[in-house]
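Input.
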Amino acid sequence: MKKLVVATFLLLVALTAKAQSYVGFLTDNCSGVHGVIANPANIADSRFKTDINLIGASGFFANDYVGVGFSELTGSDFEFDTDASLYLTDNNNFSGNLDIMGPSFMFNIGKKSSVAIFTRARTILTGNEFNGESIDDLDDSIDENQDFLVNEGDFFAAGHGWAEIGLTYAQVLMNNEQHFLKGGLSLKYLQGFGNAYVTGKNVTIDYDADGATLPDNSTSGTLESTGDLYYGRSGDYDNDDYDYEVPDANGFGFDLGFVYEWRPDYEDYLVTGANGEKTVMKDKNKYKLKLGLSLTDIGAVTYKGGLIDSYNINNTITQEDYDNIEDSEDLQNLYTFTQATEDLKAGLPTALHFNADWNIKNHFYLNLNTDLSVRSAGENNLRTANVFSLTPRFESKWFSFYLPVSSYQYSGFQIGAGLRAGPFYLGSGSIISTFTRSEIRGADVYAGLKIPVYYGQPKDSDGDGIPNKEDGCPKKAGPIENNGCPWGDTDGDSVLDNEDQCPNEAGPVENNGCPWVDTDGDTLLDNEDQCINEAGPVENNGCPWADSDGDSVIDKDDECPNEMGTVANNGCPEPVVTAEVQKSLNEYAKTILFNTGKSSLKDESTPVLVDIISILNEYPNANFTIEGHTDSIGSVATNQKLSEQRAQAVLQFLIDGGISPARLKAIGYGESKPIATNMYKDGRQKNRRVEINLAE
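Output.
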């Protein structure tokens, strides 16, 4: 009987609960405000102006303990012992949830941002590490004449019901042509309805069929038990009134998510308005591949004044004691019992979600989704079952169809189906498996009603690609740059205004619609002037006389018209200062001597400088630099000043000798450019020098 009750409960919950959550439906880009359940970033850049959910429900249950065929379970002759299959291990588990989404809506608050407000009522059931073999031994068919041993060990079970009101904000973070990224955050206020958990630690039960001798010398069975049991709950559920009051329980939670889209054909979704501004189509899915990552249900509800019953069951009782147990008070008389009042913290079923969506072609998509619980099994820990789903779908604005193929933790492989038709959505991640497989260990279903308000394509009556509201001539096709109007010919010169450089003044076609003018003012109109931007004589067709070699001597006066020269040399090049000449100058310069530590020239330097003047006079158009250098003896500042003064002294001598000051420049480098080491006398002598170089 106990097995039948347990199995019936498990499967009825499974068939009336919802998927983890909305399997198939949440892959749809037109799921609207429901998108915040899986990833709060989903509502940014959505297909909706607004989406209003009226009511929706979703339920799910999975277990690895018992499997029953749907037809057998619903049949009038169902027999658990023959129709149900048990999968007994020392680690059986179950997980279920019920999620009701109440009035909720989303809307856009700008080109890049969206907001959603949602309401949900949720219930989570979870059980982990139950010894299924022990449960099988503890049914009503126990043979009191047979010994048995139950080694339950540690086990955990918890249930939690709460409501939440959430606010979601999502925004486009990056829109870089092919690459698009958006993020979202949901903040949730939580109101608890009830919480309870049962935990066992090191629990064993050893039944000895003839372990006790009664006064009449007959024998009786004994139950020897060990371990600890804990029963925590948010209120006193054992009272006889069954009066329910909303507990003093609340908390906060949040969800965080990001979505990346690869848009290789992004240019196909750009619309250019009459003002030239480019916008992206709102009513289209623009990606080839979409990747989403989110972390949901981070937070907890704290129940004030919870009760925790603790039983230490290290004791041996008789069969008669066992038979007389009717309620918790009888248990308290048989085992060590304590009760404490303290706040209970019920953590939300935190989960990590990864989603990859591939647009195969047009309206056909393939979605991969994973829901992974990040809660470990433990006291009052609520876990959702892990789910891996691969969902092909057809998606359009008013109709979508899904075929999710999923692997559920505890209940295994499932195949489902779902659809969205206008305001109505319905589906299950396991309906095909439920009706086609010989047995099931879990199932889910969801349904709901909403009011979707989609973006539409702007009306373009003349088909010129400009929406009517931005088209200056909505009934006549025209280019964007003319506000959607066809080009006119204002001055009547047969050149349309978009090609007429003088739209208000008639002119010939060959002059782009402008009258001929005399641009350079040389009395020849531009159509006859071969050099319209340079004034020239009429006899040279309006062009200035040419200077073929560009030496500022026009060809008719240039003795070397194809070789650049100087005006002073009648257009022919001046003699070139060769490397040999440069070397000769510096050889002379090395023999220029100064009085020690001074910038005054020694008398014996005069012949050298006279020879240098002769060389410079051979190249009257060449400019030179006189560069002074010193060794490193003395301060840097002193050496710098001395080098400048010596270079200036040589420059002055050359000027006095007839060299134009415009051709000369004196520079002092101090000790900054040595040509030998300053550590030795010979090197320092080489560094004390003057160089005469051709200026660049």
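Confidence is low (pLDDT under 50) at residues 1-19.
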